[in-house]
Specification:
Elements lengths: L4 H11 L9 H21 L4 H24 L1 H11 L4
Helix pairs in contact: 1-2, 2-3, 3-4
Amino acid sequence: MSITKDKMQELVSENGKNSEDTGATESQVAIFTERIRNLTDHLKVNKKDKSAQRGLMLLVAKRARLLKYLKKNSLDGYKQLIEKLDLRK
């Protein structure tokens, strides 16, 4: 359910300002999106896993707060990230 270190490094280098910038909002949103997709796949198989459901809801809320922050501070960055991660259809 969690992502590997290599996958996280790949997400950070694609979305952050550099390959070491894990604190950038874009990097965090990309990491949360990957974790959300993994949890969603897990919950399709394990429907009664309530702790995973709770974790998913917490991640979705965190990602929403970060996206709201990004939209407020950098609208162009927000639009690019939404397009790149294939969110908001």
